[in-house]
């Protein structure tokens, strides 16, 4: 039995609220159970120096957690420097979102996706990628409506989900009690039906090829459900 009482292939409830902030070109609040992340997308007509005059666009991301997003207060990283974990996560978000972007169609501009964790209960990087794509899509829609770009540079939606082995059982969408006690923990990022990245590690026990296949099957199911929620939100 999972601590939450969910079935092994059951995700937490997921909601996406659009236009969560007033000024960003695209924004949403994604809630995956008790994990809540504010995602905003900002259009910048400049690109990084290495892309100047290339005709290619760029998508990047920043990630952070509020001091009381977790059980105990954390110091603000702006005052103390970003941790290695934060840097790794925001690079993951950026490259995951870029996997679903036609950078020629985007044109020579940059979109910055900010993911700020309001409340954490496991899976913050996955929620950030899933919500970040929605914010990115809303910003792209504004560019298209304004005639700044002629075709949609976004291909299939990008989403992410965690899977792991908890109490000897393969389960979908780990919350914090499961994540902190999982024998195996994995994050799966997909662009539609195609894999973008898989992060898996043994956390006290090893796993077999058959178990990995079961986790991948669970991830495909979960991401299919997330894609449906994303498309419903932006349609």
Automatic annotation (TrEMBL):
Give the EC number(s) listed in the UniProt record. 2.7.7.56
Q: Identify the InterPro entries for this entry.
A: ExoRNase_PH_dom1, ExoRNase_PH_dom2, ExoRNase_PH_dom2_sf, PNPase/RNase_PH_dom_sf, Ribosomal_Su5_D2-typ_SF, RNase_PH, RNase_PH_bac-type, RNase_PH_CS
Q: Does the keyword RNA-binding apply?
A: yes
Q: In the record, what terms sit under GO molecular function? A: 3'-5'-RNA exonuclease activity; tRNA binding; tRNA nucleotidyltransferase activity
What positions does the entry give for phosphate binding? Answer: 85, 123-125
In its keyword annotation, does this UniProt entry include RNA-binding? yes
Extract the CDD domains matched here: RNase_PH_bact
Domain spans labelled Exoribonuclease phosphorolytic: 10-139, 156-222
Q: Which UniProt keywords apply?
A: Nucleotidyltransferase, RNA-binding, rRNA processing, Transferase, tRNA processing, tRNA-binding
Q: Which reaction does it catalyse?
A: tRNA(n+1) + phosphate = tRNA(n) + a ribonucleoside 5'-diphosphate
Pfam families in the cross-refs: RNase_PH, RNase_PH_C
- Superkingdom is Bacteria
- Which GO BP annotation is one of this protein's? tRNA processing
PANTHER family the record matches: EXOSOME COMPLEX COMPONENT, EXOSOME COMPLEX COMPONENT RRP41
Q: How does it assemble?
A: Homohexameric ring arranged as a trimer of dimers.
Family, as annotated? Belongs to the RNase PH family.
Function per UniProt:
Phosphorolytic 3'-5' exoribonuclease that plays an important role in tRNA 3'-end maturation. Removes nucleotide residues following the 3'-CCA terminus of tRNAs; can also add nucleotides to the ends of RNA molecules by using nucleoside diphosphates as substrates, but this may not be physiologically important. Probably plays a role in initiation of 16S rRNA degradation (leading to ribosome degradation) during starvation.
Q: What is this protein called?
A: Ribonuclease PH
Q: Which organism is it from?
A: Cognatiyoonia sediminum
Its ancestry begins with:
Bacteria, Pseudomonadati, Pseudomonadota, Alphaproteobacteria, Rhodobacterales
């Amino acid at each position: 039995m999972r601590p939450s009482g969910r079935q092994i292939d059951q995700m937490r409830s997921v909601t996406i609220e659009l236009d969560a902030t007033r000024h960003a070109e695209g924004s949403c609040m994604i809630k995956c159970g008790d994990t809540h992340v504010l995602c905003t997308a900002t259009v910048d007509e400049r690109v990084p120096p290495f892309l100047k005059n290339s005709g290619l666009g760029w998508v990047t991301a920043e990630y952070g957690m509020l001091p009381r997003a977790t059980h105990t207060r954390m110091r603000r990283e702006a005052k103390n420097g970003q941790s290695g974990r934060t840097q790794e996560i925001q690079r993951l978000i950026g490259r995951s979102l870029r996997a679903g972007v036609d950078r020629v169609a985007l044109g020579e501009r940059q979109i910055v996706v900010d993911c700020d964790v309001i409340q954490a209960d496991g899976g913050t990087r996955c929620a950030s990628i899933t919500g970040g794509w929605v914010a990115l899509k809303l910003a792209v829609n504004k560019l298209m409506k304004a005639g700044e770009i002629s075709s949609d540079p976004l291909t299939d939606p990008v989403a992410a989900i965690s899977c792991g082995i908890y109490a000897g059982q393969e389960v979908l969408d780990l919350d914090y009690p499961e994540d902190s006690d999982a024998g195996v923990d994995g994050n799966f990022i997909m662009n539609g039906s195609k894999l973008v990245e898989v992060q898996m590690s043994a956390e006290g026990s090893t796993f077999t090829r058959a178990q990995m296949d079961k986790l991948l099957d669970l991830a495909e199911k979960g991401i299919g459900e997330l894609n449906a929620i994303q498309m419903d939100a932006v349609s």
